[in-house]
Amino acid sequence: MSEQQAPRPRSHAQPPAGLLDLSGLAPSLAPPAWLLGRLERSLHQLGAAPHPHAAVRAVGRRHDRDEAEVLLTAGASDALLLLARVLRPRRAVVVHPWLSSAEAALRAAGSAGEQLVLDPPYSLDPEQVPADADLVVLASPGDPTGVVQQGLDRLCRPGRVVVVDESLADAVPGEPGSLSGRGDLPGLVVVRSLSRTWSLTGLRVGYLLAPPDLVETLRAAQAPLPVSTLALTALETCLARGPVAMASKDAAALSPERERLAASLRELGAEVAPGSQAPFLLCRVPGRLDLPDVLQDRGIRVRRLDEVPGLGPDYWRVAVRGGQESAQLLSALHGALAPSSAGTSPSTV
Fold first, then answer.
1. 158/338: higher pLDDT
2. Are residues 191 and 280 in the same domain?
3. In Å, what is the CA distance from 56 to each residue of 84, 311, 334, 345?
4. Which terminal residue of the chain, N or C, has fewer Cβ atoms less than 10 Å from its own Cβ?
C-alpha cells in the first residue's frame, strides 16, 4: 500500500465484533450499571410531563450558581443551536481546531461564522480575537487537541457573548481553567454535557450557565419540555457529590496513561500534539493518509479529522483508555509503520 494512498470513505456503521474502537470519547458504549439502574427506576414516570426543578437545583449546586443562571438543554449541540438562533451576531468568531457543530448552528440561524485557526500548541491569546467580534465560540478543553485554554475571562466584555463549550471539562483532573463558577463575567455562557464521562451521547443531556437575563431569553425560545424525564434523572444523579468525585478520580487515573501513550507513539515515529490534558491525543504520521484504514484492518479504529479546520487529512484522534488498549494500539501501529518507518524521528504536531 502506498504511503500517499487516499483514505477510504468514512463509515458510520457499528464497529464489527472484535474491533477496538478508540474513535469515540465515551469510556464505553453503555453507562455504568448503577446509572442504568437509576434510569430504569425512572421509567414509570414517562407518562407524566418532565419536571426540571430538581435537575436545575442539581446544576446550581454543582457549580455554585443561582438557579436563574441555569438552562437545561438536549445536549451541547442543542445549546449551541439555540444560542445562534437567539443571538443573531453581527460578527461571530469560532476558534479552531475544533470538532463542533457551532458553525453549522450559525449557518442554520443565518449567520456566517468566521474561523480563527490556532497554530500549535493551540493556545488562544485573547488578543487574537477581533475587537469587534460580538460572539466568540470555543471549547476548553478542545476536541481534538485536549488543550485547556487559560485567561478566557479576558475575552469577556459588555456587548459581547463568549460561549465556552466545557463538555469535556470533567474529563480533566481538577477542571483547571473552568469558568463554570464565574457568574460575574459579562456575556459569559458555559456549555456543559454529560455525554462523554457517563456514556450518555444517545440521551442528549446538557445545560448552559449564563446571566439570568440571557437565560430567560433563551428559555423563551426553547420548545416546550425540551429535556426528557430520563435526561433530568441523569442530571440529578450524575451531578451529585459522589458521581462528581468519581469522575474526578477516573480522570486523574487516566492522566499517567495518556503521557505514557504519547511517549510511546512518538517513539514509533508518530507526531503527537503537545498539551493535551484530556483523555485523548491528536496524532498524525505525515503523508500516511491511509493510516486509519490500515489500523482498522489491524483491529483498531481511530477518529479521522480531515474535516477539522487547521488540520490535514493525515490527522487522527485516539482515545486514551487503559494499558491493555494502549498496548493493542501500539502493536497495530508498529505493524502499520514497519515497512516505511526508516528515517522517521519522533516529533510533535
1. 158
2. no
3. 23, 38, 49, 51
4. N
Tens digit of each residue's pLDDT (9 = 90 or more) over 288-320: 999 999 999 999 999 999 999 999 999 999 999
Full-model pTM: 0.91
Question: What is the grid cell recorded at 312?
Answer: 490535514
> Phi and psi for 92 in degrees, rounded to 5?
-100, 135
Predicted confidence (pLDDT) per residue in 210-260, tens digit: 999 999 999 999 999 999 999 999 999 999 999 999 999 999 999 999 999
Q: Are residues 110 and 220 in the same domain?
A: yes
> What HEC string does 260-305 produce?
HHHHHHHHCCCEECCCCCCCEEEEECCCCCCHHHHHHHCCEECEEC
Task: Taking the CA atoms of 255, 257, 261 and 263 in sequence, report the sign of the dihedral they define.
Answer: positive
Q: Can you give the residue range of the structural domain that contains 182? A: 46-118+125-239
| Per-state percent for the chain, helix, strand, coil, to nearest 5 | 35, 15, 50
Neighbour-count burial for 7-26, b at 16+ CB within 10 Å, e otherwise: beeeeeeeeeeeebbbbbbb
Is the domain of 191 the same as that of 71? yes
Q: How many residues are present in the chain?
A: 349
CATH number, domain with residue 264? 3.90.1150.10
CA 184 to chain centre: 25
What CATH number corresponds to the domain at position 90?
Answer: 3.40.640.10
Nearest 5°: the CA angle 208, 74, 44 is: 120
Q: How many other β-carbons are positioned within 10 Å of the β-carbon of residue 128?
A: 12
**Rounded CA separation 107/24 (Å):** 26
Q: Is the dihedral of CA 126, 75, 312, 291 positive or negative?
A: positive
99 in the same domain as 223: yes
> Is residue 219 one of the residues assigned to a domain?
yes
5-41 residue pLDDT tens: 555 555 444 555 589 999 999 888 889 999 999 999 9
Domain membership flag for residue 93:
yes
282 and 227 share one domain: no
